[in-house]
C-alpha cells in the first residue's frame, strides 16, 4: 500500500517531475469529481512538521463580474484562470507560512496528478484585493494563492518571458544544495543512499523566482537531515519539507521531525529551521 496520505495515481517523483508552473488557462471547467477531490484535500486537517495551522480557501471567479475579477490583481501574469486556492495564515506567524507551503504544495501535487495546471503566486497578485474576495478576517494574512485549471495548448507570451527570466527549467546541482556533515563538504549523490530520492524530490520542486532558497546538511551518514533557509523564504522551505516528507513516507523511510539546531557553522544569511531524524 502507498504510504502518502494523498491518493496519487503514480509515484510522487513522477508527479513532481510532471508539475510545471502554467500561467494561461483554458475556459474548460475542472471536472466535478476532480474538483471534489481537491476540495476535500483543502478541507483536510493536515499536520505538518511545523505544527502550525493555516486555512486554504477555494475561490471561484466563474461568472463573476469583470470588475470583481480585477481585484485579483494578477498583473497580466495569469490569464484565463477562474479557480484559485487561497492560503491564509495569522499575520506575522512565519511558522504558519512554512506550514502553508507544506499544505498548499499537497494540493498542487494532487492537481498535477489530475492533469490540471497550477502556478504558485507569492508576489504577482493583490493581497488586499484577494483578502476582500475571500472575506479574510482582521489579522489574517494571504502569503500565496494558486490558480488551478486546464492549461491552454500553448504558453502565452508573458509565461514564456517569466520562465526565461527565472530560468524556470534549471535546477541547482545536487552538490550545490546538499551537504555532507557540514557546509564545507558538498554531498555527492552516491553517498545519499536511501535519501537520494527524498533529496531529489526537494531539488526538483518549485520555488519563488526559481531561487531554490534552502540548503540541507545530511549528518551521521543519513541519520539526521538539517534544513536551512536562505534569506527566510518560508513558503519555499515548507514546499521543500513537504517533498522530502512525502517521498520518505512513500518509500517507507521512517523518521521524525524536530527543531533541534545541531550547531553546524552556517554561512552568512543561512539560518537553521528544522531537522528530520531517521527512526
Ligand atoms: C512560493 C512561490 C511563489 C511564487 N510566486 C510566483 C509569482 O508571484 N508569480 C509567478 O509568475 N510565479 C511565481 N512562482 C513560480 C516560480 O517562478 C516557479 O516555480 C519557478 O520559476 C520554477 O518553474 P516551474 O514551477 O515551472 O518548475 C512562485 C513559486 C513559488 C514556489
Can you characterise this structure?
The structure is a single chain. The mean pLDDT is 95. This protein has nine helices and nine strands. Helix 2 (32-43) packs antiparallel against helix 4 (94-113). The protein has a five-stranded mixed β-sheet. Strands 1-2-4-3 form a four-stranded antiparallel β-sheet, sandwiched between helices. It has 279 residues and is α+β, with helices and mostly antiparallel strands. It has two domains: 12-165, NADH Oxidase (3-Layer(aba) Sandwich), CATH 3.40.109; 174-278, putative nitroreductase (tm1586), domain 2 (NADH Oxidase, 3-Layer(aba) Sandwich). The chain is globular and about 60 Å long. The longest helix has 20 residues, at 94-113. It has helices at 12-18, 32-43, 66-70, 94-113, 127-133, 157-166, 174-177, 196-203, 234-251; strands at 55-60, 83-90, 117-118, 140-149, 178-180, 214-219, 224-230, 255-258, 270-278. Flavin mononucleotide (FMN) binds at residues 20-21, 77, 119-124, 144, 162, 166, 168, 206-210, 235-236, 239.
Order of helices and strands: HHEHEHEHEHHEHEEHEE
Derived from helix and strand composition plus strand pairing, the structural class reads: alpha+beta
CATH topology of the largest domain: NADH Oxidase
What proportion of the residues form beta strands (DSSP E)?
15-25%
Structure summarized in a few sentences:
This protein is α+β, with helices and mostly antiparallel strands and 279 residues long. The chain contains 9 helices and 9 strands.
Task: List its salient traits.
NADH Oxidase; single chain; alpha+beta; 4-stranded antiparallel β-sheet; 2 domains; 5-stranded mixed β-sheet; 279 residues; binds flavin mononucleotide; 9 helices
